[in-house]
Amino acid sequence: MRRLPIVPLSLIVPVILLTAATPANADDSATPSAEGASQLGEIVVTAAKREQKLIDVPISISAYDRETMDIEGVRDINDVTRLTPGLANIPTSTYGGQTIAIRGINSNTGASTTGIYIDDTPIQTRDYLGVVNNAYPLVFDLDRVEVLRGPQGTLFGSGSEGGTVRFITPTPSLNSSSIYGRADAGYTQFGQPNEELGIALETPIVEDEAGIRASVWGRHLGGYIDRVSHDTGDTVATDTNGQNDVAARVMVRIAPNQSLTITPSIYFQRAGRDDLDLYWPDAGRYNSWYGIGQPEIDQIVLPALTVNYDFESFSVKSITSFFDRHDERIEDYAPLSIGALTGGTESFVPSVNFHERSDTITRQQNYDEELRFSSKVDPGSRFSWVAGLFFYHGQQNYNQWEVDNIGDLLPVLFPGYTTLTFYGQNQLPGHVSFLENLNYTSQQTAAFGEASYKLTDRLTATAGLRVERSSFSYNDYQNGPFAGPASFDDSGGEKETPVTPRFNLSYAIGDGQVYATAAKGYRTGGANEQVPVTCAADLAALGLTTVPSTYQSDTVWSYEVGAKQRVLDRKVEVNGSLYWIDWSAIQGNIPLLNCGFGYNTNLGKAVSKGFDLQVQASPIRDLLLTVAAGYDDAAYSRTVLGENAPGTNVPTILAKEGDGLGVPGWQASVSTEYSWALSADSKAYVFGSYQYTGNYQRTGSLGVVGYNPYTFNGSEIQNTNIRAGIRRNGWDVSAYVNNLFDERNFLYFYQAPASGPDGARAETPRPRTFGLTATFRY
User: Could you give phi then psi for residue 71, rounded to 5 degrees?
Assistant: First the structure.
């Protein structure tokens, strides 16, 4: 097991000691010294469902405003994870799936462990075998991104067991107009050009009574992967993995009087890819042996209505939203089926032109309503509170068709067999070998509240509680020869009543605070879909004849101490925390490697412990330094045994004490920006950033079900970006190089345990990319 290093404590303790040197009456109106005035910005967040300055919120948060995201080149969730200690984005399947985890609470199956929000709307999905994953907003017209580390179940519900990522959009002004535009042109080495263009406009409709903000954005990323023939080596298609994305948003703010505000909005996003970012290392650099292109179109529409009314001592807010997601993709399943028929050897059969195409449509429709009551912000009051009711109804549909020429392959691998004699059923009309219609229904009804009381002028106690009634049900229909001799229709479900409390103590010291938090997180359980008869051999190897019908919810208890402080005349801001998380009844997936399916079960206990540290400093005027680092040691703390393997008295091992949970240990990012005056109204600047993500354990170790020696070790990843530009009269024009040193370590790597060398597939960071960016703010 990885040990927690001594470094974090030595870094965080000085933060607390430095606070003693800062006057206790320091406040936000203090003026920096004229020489070397601080360049540190002030970000306002709504992590506690009320507006607060980041330094005043007693939890571990990373927040990025639009200016920071522009200069860092943040365009999507992958860029956010590069900058954020404790936030990991883990690839989960050969079909482009990925899952996001905070502080080691990582799972690629069942309900999400991380809450994903657009404003106040949860959009996370229920994962299915690593191939159905979350949709994430593309970054253009955003006010900020907030990453809340640690369980947030009290205020944000059961989807936030490890933490929450919130994409916050700007609200229209009622008395001023603004324009924000961004254009980008670039080129990816070994590939094609990239283009981006977007504009956001904001203006009052009726002065002080109504305003509107509208934006539209589009991006094309050129491909850099070629498809080649495995038999001849000829190039079939070039630069296949291009992307085409668009997003649009309209929000209207209506304030008929000083107390009432009505804010309707609609958000639209369409993310399209022409092919996967995977290539086959043995086929050559950025070459793929896939037989067909694998495009995907993922579209989301989110209308929402927020109504806020301010009474004399409290306010009432209603948030109503409907999230509609429609995802269609095509996948090449030929390697998977060959592996299932040959005992895991995902290689090619030269004498047969075998092809298998999987068409998948995923639909997610969520309706939610939150009615929130909160006390007015009063600096003179010792007591503040927020309470509310929440209702959620979610429907998720997964429909799949597999079309192939299996009748040509079977006689070559198994002479004398046909589809009927091998599987017990002929193909369905249209050469369909497998058909699945899977429907999930989830519902939550909850009451929550949190209250804070100032015990002294410096010491504040906070307690919160959420009580939720949740239900989950599914219906699964499967047919075709891959499902067995006959179709089957399966259903199941469960109901639970989780209670998630949170307790916090914070003590103000100087221009900052120290705090301690204990909080519980929760993730709902579920029911397993029965796997087809083709998985019988895999089940038998585990001592099973069928998969377990249900799996239970899992929970975490998180304990955190931290400090936030501005020191040295506010030229340095330091935020740091230490945490220990106990995770119980962990939901995990047991892969059935040969047939391509799996099932969920509860895998005992784990502990995740570590630290995060963020430092921002402006030691001299026009120089800004940012350092963020984190370490996470997340591992099983107990071995979990399954049934005895057939013909033995030796139980299978489902999880092993000391095995990691599939997240990197070390994460760090460093950036620096220096600017200087060219004239009275223009400045030049240079910017550089470096990000590091450490290696990790992708599967269980030797002897654990699902162990794969080829994919066991996840690579470390390093990334360096540079940018230089000029700012003048609202314009910012810059040149950049991303992935300066053309990092090629694997983000994802898969090779079947029994396959030959031509079974490996991999994904690397996007190759070195050059470009020009122009932004305009008015």
Answer: -75, -30
* Contact present, 207 and 215 (Cβ < 8 Å): no
pLDDT-based confidence at residue 759 (cuts at 50, 70, 90):
confident
H-run or E-run covering 386: strand 383-404
Residues 747, 88: Cα–Cα separation, whole Å: 12
Packed helices 406-413 and 334-341: angle between N→C axes, nearest 10 degrees: 30
Angle, CA 57 vertex, CA 54 and CA 61 arms, to 5°: 65
Residue carrying the six token digits 């609200």: 171
Q: The CATH number of the domain where 333 resides is what?
A: 2.40.170.20
Calpha distance 609→634 (Å, rounded):
6
- The CB-based long-range contact list for 259-264 (8 Å cut-off, 24+ gap) reads 259/309, 259/310, 259/311, 260/307, 260/308, 260/309, 260/310, 261/306, 261/307, 261/308, 261/309, 262/305, 262/306, 262/307, 263/171, 263/305, 263/306, 263/307, 263/308, 264/303, 264/304, 264/305, 264/306
Type of residue at 393: H
Task: Please enumerate in sequence order all residues whose Cβ is within 8 A of that of 25, keeping only pairs 6 or more positions apart, or say none.
Answer: none
Phi, psi values for residue 409, rounded to 5°: -85, -40
> Is 2 inside a domain boundary?
no
Residue 27 has what pLDDT? 40
Q: How far apart are CA 524 and CA 443, in angstroms?
A: 11
Please name which of 747, 777, 739 lies closest in space to residue 764, comparing C-alpha atoms.
747
Q: Is residue 354 part of a domain?
A: yes
Locate all alpha helices (DSSP H) within 132-287, ordered by sequence: 153-156
Contact status, residue 776 vs residue 181, Cβ threshold 8 Å: yes
Within-domain flag for 483: yes
Establish if 612 belongs to a structural domain: yes
Instruction: For residues 630 and 632, give the distance between their C-alpha atoms in angstroms, rounded to a whole number.
Output: 7
How many residues can be counted in the chain? Answer: 778
Tally of domains in the chain = 1
State pLDDT tens for residues 259-305: 999 999 999 999 999 999 999 998 888 999 999 999 999 999 999 99
Q: Cβ of 521: how many Cβ atoms within 10 Å?
A: 29
Domain that holds residue 362: 7-777
